[in-house]
Amino acid sequence: MTRPFHASVPGDHAPCRGRTFDIEFDFVSHRLVIRDSGGAVEDFALEPMAVADFYARTMAALDALGIEAPIYARPNEVEPAIPFAEDHRHASYDGHAVRLFWLQLLQASRVLGEFRSRFIGKVSPVHLFWGGMDLACTRFSGRPAPEYSGDIPNCPREVMVQGYSHELSSCGFWAGGGDEGAFYSYAYPEPEGFSDRSVGPFDAFYNDQLGQFLLPYEAVRTASDPEKALLGFLQSTYEAAADLGGWDRAALEADPGRMG
């Protein structure tokens, strides 16, 4: 049975005055559902409405449950960053497209989870990043990195400095990477020769503007073995970062023979 897409990490519930709550985007029934640990529920239909109206209804539902949830009430990593309460420009909701995106995330999360299990060093969960709405998984070498000096629109600098404080190889799926989205992989700091490294499968390429390898979603979807194609991309791009960056791979990677 298909399950609705959960906005947070599975099993993650936010604390509030001795109880917990979660917010779920149900892309089967197309509803936003807010539940607390006492069994109280507030929900409303996901349908075409202005961002300002969606924001107001969400905050009203939280208020009805007695949940105080102050947030930074404007988007990150986009330009312009219209405050939610003032955004009457964006008012579409395509239920069919949203469901397809959710199904993409389900499949991508499954394979990224398999890839994640092969690493015994520090590695992030497979998570939905709030800024670019990408499904991401990041491996770390264990060594500190040069202080981040990039410029991400409408994202506090301290977030980026903390996020890139250590050497990493990051991969994931981004809906904005092509006609059907794209899988990506990049390294920070990017080692010399990274962009010239040969990676698989054949459709993968390095995008100079984004500074990362991309693999179109449709190339994976139409492959004879989609999972093998994606794992090949994730592994070969990680190896490019780890080999050229001098990572201690023997200490960081799991022994496939002991994983069963």
Summarize the entry for a quick read.
It contains 6 helices and 10 strands; from the N terminus they run ββββααββαββββααα. With 260 residues, the chain is an alpha+beta fold. It has a 6-stranded antiparallel beta sheet. A 4-stranded antiparallel beta sheet has the order 1-2-3-4, covered by helices on one side.
Structural overview:
This protein has a six-stranded antiparallel β-sheet with strand order 5-6-7-8-10-9. A four-stranded antiparallel β-sheet has the order 1-2-3-4, with helices on one face. The chain has six helices and ten strands. The chain is globular, with a radius of gyration of 20 Å.
Task: Estimate the helix proportion, in percent.
Answer: 25-40%
Number of DSSP strands? Answer: 10
- List segments where confidence is low: pLDDT < 50 over at least 5 consecutive residues: 1-11
Strand-residue fraction? 15-25%
Tell me the major beta sheet.
Answer: 6 strands, antiparallel
For the termini, the CA-CA separation is 27 Å
Taken in chain order, the helices and strands follow as: EEEEHHEEHEEEEHHH
The geometry reads as: globular
Q: Helical element count?
A: 6
How are strands sequenced across the largest beta sheet?
Answer: 5-6-7-8-10-9
- The average pLDDT is 91
